[in-house]
Each structure stands twice: as structure tokens, then as C-alpha cells.
Amino acid sequence: MPSITYREALNQAHVEEMERDDSVFLMGEEVGVYDGAYKVSKGLLDHFDDSQWRVRDTPIAEYGFSGIGVGAAMAGLRPIVEFMTWNFSFLAFDQVVNSAAKMYQMSGGQYNVPVVFRAPGGAALQLGSQHSQCPDPWYSNVPGLKVVAPATPRDAKGLLKSAVRDDDPVLVIEGELLYNTKGEVPDEDDLLVPIGEAEVKREGSDATVICHSKMVLQALEAAEGVLEEHGVDVEVVDLRTLRPLDVDTVIESVKKTNRAVVVEEGWPSAGIGAQVVDDIQREAFDWLDAPVARVSGLDVPMPYARNLEKLAFPSAPYIENAIEKVCYIEDR
Amino acid sequence: MRMSRSAPAGGKPTPPRAVTPQPTETMATKEETPHAAGHRDLLDLPEEEHRDLLRQMMLYRRFEEKTAESYQMGKIGGFCHLYIGQEAVAAGGIPQLEERDHIVSAYREHAHALARGMSPETVMAELYGRVDGCSKGKGGSMHLFDRERNFMGGHAIVGAHLPIAAGVGYRIRYREEDSVVLCLFGDSVMNIGSLNESWNMAAKWGLPVVYICENNSYGMGTEIDRVAAVDELVDRACGYDGMHATAVDGMDVMAMREATDEAVRIAREEKRPSFIEARCYRYMGHSMADPAHGTYRPKDEVDEERENDPILSYLERLDDAGIVSQDEYDEMDEEVIDEVEAAAEFADESPKPDPEAVYEDIYSDAFPHGIDRRDGFRDALE
User: Fold this and answer.
1) Predicted ipTM beyond 0.85
2) Topology (CATH level 3) of domain A3-184
3) Looking at A14, A131, A235, A265, which residue is catalytic?
């Protein structure tokens, strides 16, 4: 099985879906001539014979081009709208939340909106507060949307392909720090990862860590740490999709391990983790041997200084601490 | 309760008011506007078409009067924006579109839907929140849709549907088709950023969209002159190369029709967008929540504008030309009132949506793990 980067996996997904279905097109800032701000769309314009209609460079006008994506989708195309980063999507929040998410219902089921909005989310390296945010809970709160956040190259490719084929608006939250990570991706045309299915990325028996996106890598690192240090065997559940959230897989794992740590990169208030904890206490309260622990980014705008940024980012040591806590292991 | 059969409010028609178009030299493409100030002829339409147009406008008026009555009786809820006074824009701009064309509108769109051929029954049932409504009662007054007729809403966030219309235009160019998109909005949109983004891309990419601003002088209660840093709204279009722009007397159905036909031709044949500033006036409040004049405009102004009623002034011309007499008008009015009453009865008798419908039409694809999984305690209401 070939090992490729997360970036290459996304690029392959674009090429395959655009070749498979001529109603699929890509639009966004710098996606064409510039090859993509993060090179996810590298070579696409050339590959599709320099067709500006298939690979559309837009002005910096998030509200406008996201709305064009919604309109084109209502009229039968399947646009992939790239936001460069999710931080810029806030200029288009209205189009995502008020137009894309509501259209099917407010038209009484007449106009579905098969649009994909994609971009990297979360912190990278010292980009400061306005460029280091996790939009995950904001969009996952909205009925009418689907939200996926892949952690591995295989999931990135498979989920993006599923998103393109989905008949409703799907948001793909990628990770700038994930683009260079490598992983095995099956060499097949129809690699589809179903939307709405979590995956156990590491099996274990003593505690469950529930996470998504970049935090999966941190959780796997933490799992090795606590195994080595305390002999604790952790199960890591990668949510992969945030809406609809695979509550079944979470509950099944928690009922097995009886302990849970919920991790996310974003802020704690009203976060994804808050929802997962609620799902656990509603559906698996009697199976818990300890209160559920939450790990999140610190409740502050992301600072620029490298040492402060590291502090605010929920890395493996934080997760190890939380695992120790739910396992009632004294401080090391 | 039946509505009164008196003539629509307003006195004897008078010559056009002083909001006639004043195209300036800075206009986008500096094209001649054939429908100059005071254009009041009847074009070369067959007599039957004039009768139909007049009847259409009468239907919009009576429909909205019935809507107001039903609203006051509590049969219609929420925000409800009436079209009374602006009938010439819908009648002049919409019925002549081809079936394959598209319409994307805002929230004062009851008459736009009727003009597109949606039945008064299905529109009224939507206002009543019933299953036979055009959006199954899920949308309401501000979200009328009819996929069969390419009527794409009904959008309630000011300015949001301008790029959506451009997106439909994008698809038309993408598939190399020759249909066009008509996008209608109010004057408050002229100051929103969405307009610049949409027009810039529509002009740059040659999208076949006809943008019609129904300039009724007030964005809710704010007179456009108080907030727009431009004297003539039509001049806003001069910043977009290739965009055809014109201002027209939106109280004159013939002027409106001529301007729209030209813009539609440009979109269809030349693949470029247009802007029509239709200068009109609304006789009612912004919505059912406020009175006709309120604190922001004097009653005298409304009364004066009613002297220029788009329906009565058209009737006078048709009467002068021997096409429709006052007696024929009265007869048509009876018919239209009956039609509207029947629509209200239909709406009243249409069932309310089943409780299960609350979870329907949210996603068209699968939504695993139970869409209602976190909704506890709702049994209390079922």
C-alpha cells in the first residue's frame, strides 16, 4: 500500500472526483494558477485543460463565492469551495449557515445543496489569534450541515470523496499541520470513507480517548506514554465525522473501558467535547468508573509567542494527565 | 369573511411622479435607455396580453389584501411583507421569462411567485403553514419555492441571494446553456457588501443574471437617501465593466417590461449581467408589524404616491386605448376576488403538517445514528 501525504491524498480525491463526474468543480482563492495556498490543488488547472470553469480562481470575496457555490449546487452542480483557511469562512458564515444548511428544509425538500466547503482549521505555527481557530463546534451545531475532520491521509481522501458525492452540504475541516503527515492509502479509485462513522484507531481496554483531527495523533502518542509508564492500555476513538456524530461507537468503547477522556483542539466552552460528554452521561452513565475528563485548547485566543502557543495547544502530555486522572493514578 | 369589493385604494390616476429615470454619464455601459422619462405607451402587445397583465396586477393586489386580512385574523404568522404598490415590477419583469429561466428573490416575494405561475392556492397555503403550501409549510411567507418553475426562493437575509443567483448563472455558463436568472431585491441591498462581491464576479465571468432593484425608497424605515452615498442607485453599476445598467419607472408596467426584455436579451445572447433600478413605492408598511407611514414617512407622502397607482394608471391607458373599459375592469376584479377567496379557503382547509414532518426535509441523504437521538422529552407535546 503506498504511503502518501495528507496533502497528496486530498489532491487525488479532487482529481478522481472531478474526472468521475463533470458536475464537480473547484473554486476558491489561489486554487488554480497559484496551485493552491497549501498546494492541495496542485496541478489541477493544468490537468483539467486550463478550464477556468472547472478550476476557478476567485477574488478574495468569501461571502460572494461561497454563495455562488450554494447557487451552483442548487442548480445541479457539485462545487468544492476552498476557503484557504476556515478563519476566512467567517466572512461567509451566513452563506454556510443560513443558505446552505437551511435550503433543503425551507424549500420543503425541493432544493438540496450538494456543496463541499473545505479548508484547514486549527493552529499551525505561530500564526496568531486570527489564524489559529477551530470552527468545529460552531458548524457542528447547525442542523442541515454535515461536518467531517479527518486525521489521516486515508480518511482525508475517503471522506472528501464521500463529501463530494453527498447530496447535502458537507464541511471538510482539514489541518495545516496534517498536510505533510504521511500514511498508507489504498491505491483504489473508489476509496470511500462513510460520513458518520467513527473509527477505533487503537484498541485498548483500560480507558477510551475520544478525539478527532490533529488530536488523534496526540492521543496515540499519549497512549504509548501511559502504556510505557503505567501499563495502561488506552483505546483511541477517532470521531472522523462531527455531525452526524457516531455516538454508537463512542458508547460501545466506553462501555468496554468504563473510563473516558474527551479531547479537542478547540476551546472548552460549548465544544465538541461538551457534546460527547453529554452523550456519554446520557447513554452510558452506569458504566462509568470515573467522571469523564475533558482536554481542550486553553480558553484563550491563541497567542503568538511560541512558548505560549505550546501552552495553549492540547498536546500529548495534557492527554496523559487526563488518562491518569480517570484511572485514578497518582501524579507522576 | 370576505374582502370588500371596493376598488383598490387610490384616486384618479395622474401622470408619472417625479422619480423618472435620470441616467447619468457615469453609467456602466452608457447605453441609451429606450424607455425614457414619462414612457407611457402600450408597446405593441396584443390586446389579450394587456388584459392578462392588468389582471395579473389586480391578482397580486387582491392577494396581498387578503393576506393582510388573514394575518390580522391570526391565520398567518411571523414576518409578512406585502407587495402593494409595486405590482408593475413583478408584472413587467417576470411573466415573459421562458420556462427554462430562473428566479431568485428576497422576502417580499408573494407576487413574484404568482407572476411565475405558482397558484394562489399553493402560495396562500404556505403563508398559512399548511402541507399544501409550495414549501410544505416549512418555509412561510419569506421562503416560497417551486422547483418545477425554477422559482428558487424566497430568501430572508438581506443580500444573501445575490451570489446565489450568480451561482445559478455560473451553472448556466458551465453547461453552456442559454437560460437566464432574474434576481429581485430591495433598495437596502444597494449598500451591502454582498452586492459588490456578486456583481464583480458576475461581470468578470460573464454570468447571465438580471439584477432588479425594487427601489421603493425605504429599506424598512430608512430612506435610501439617508444611507446611500450615491444620488442615483443605478450609478452603482458603473464600477463593473460589461454590466448593462438602466433606471426605469417601476410604477409603469410597460416601461418595466421593455427594460427587462432588453436585459434578458443581453444576458441570454451576450452573456453578461444587467442591473435595473426599478423606481417604485410601497403603499403598506415594511411588514405587517408596522403601519403604512409610521414615524419615518408622512402620511401625505403615501397618499400622494397613491395618486400614481400602477394598476389604475395602466387601466386608464387601456381604457383610453379602448382595450379594457371600467366595466370590464370591475368584472375582472370580481373574478380576481373570487380567485383569492378560493385560495384562502383552500389554505384554511389544507391540513397542518404531521408531527413527524419536523424531522423531514433536513437532509436529502442519509443521516445515520438517529436525527432525533438527542431530542428528549418531546413526548410532552405529541
Assistant:
1) yes
2) Rossmann fold (3.40.50)
3) A131
